[in-house]
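Service request form, structural biology core

Requester: graduate student, group of Dr. S.
Request type: structure prediction, single chain
Budget code: on file
Notes: please return the result as structure tokens.

Sequence provided:
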Amino acid sequence: MKKKILMLLPNGFDPDPRVHNEAVSLVDAGYSVTIFCWDREVKYREREVIDGIQVERISVRSSYGRGSSQLRYLWKFWKEAYKRVSALEPVVIHAHDFNTLPLGYWIGRKLNVPVIFDAHESYYEMLKDNVHPLIKWGIAKAERFLVKRIDLLITVGSILEEEYKRRGAKRTRVIGNWKRLESFRFSDVQINTARKELDIPEDKLVISYVGYFLPSRGLLTLIEAVCLDREAFLLIGGKGVLVDEISAAVKGKENIRYIGYTPPDRVPMITMLSDVVYYGLEYNTGNNQYSAPNKLFEAMAAGRAILTGNLGEIAKIVKEEKCGISLNEITRVSLLGAFKILREEPVVTQYKDNALMAGKNKYNWLNAEKALLDVYGEICR
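Core staff response, request fulfilled:
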């Protein structure tokens, strides 16, 4: 009989790239994986099977970024998930992000099974100003209490791993947001067809950003800089709080292609169409100081240069691997200077080669999968 894994996820799984990679690897290794996820938008199928993963969505209507009022909706999700779990008989509980960790801990104690906490970021440091300071304080205290009592903490990078050790985590492992290299391999025909569909010019420096539209990313500054450099071309897509401002800022700009929300399975092709992958970070607060984002490892899998802020694990890795530029400040002047450097053929070619080599040798899902299966093997024994 297959060993059953229960994952807990605070989003609708459409699918979440990190969670999907981990779950597929576990299924391929012979485990049975069920994900209880919170469909707060009530827009997904209640039950479905995705790549062998059993997905059960719990519909509790809410929205993202609600602030302190989110607690009562989160509690409803916890209660419904707790009621459903007994029939599964899991051997491991795998809680993604802090807002499923208390639930995972309760289930683990109820069923007397190991609990893994998958810390995608430092949760309480990500909370916005619309969350009451007392609630932030309570979350920080609860996290410190729980990470000392779980069986394993896995997280995205070494800087955040060290921070969780400081908070009391006893057993930790880095499972990076590293990518499956085969997902970034396309024929010349496929790439040329995609370039024509998006009307990307051949003689420009192509920069891409596909992700969340957040104030800390310097996206409006990036757009301003691209508008001032006629030799640069920007592919930008995503969703988030700045979506209206960004769609207005790019309207009518000949050297910017706005592609809107881009599903995860389209991201590898957009990355391959680029010369440079942008991931700006403007200030060293919150989770930025630990950041090891998907964008970095997508660029490595595709063999593309990185342009980022001088913050977090992303800057550390870019410097170590010599695969891009990290800017002390995200300004129009600094970005225009970076564009000039990245247009120099020997420079950008070396950055691309170094990125691809780092992806092949270390930062790929094959290595992350091995680490994941090793810790699961130990815990299940």
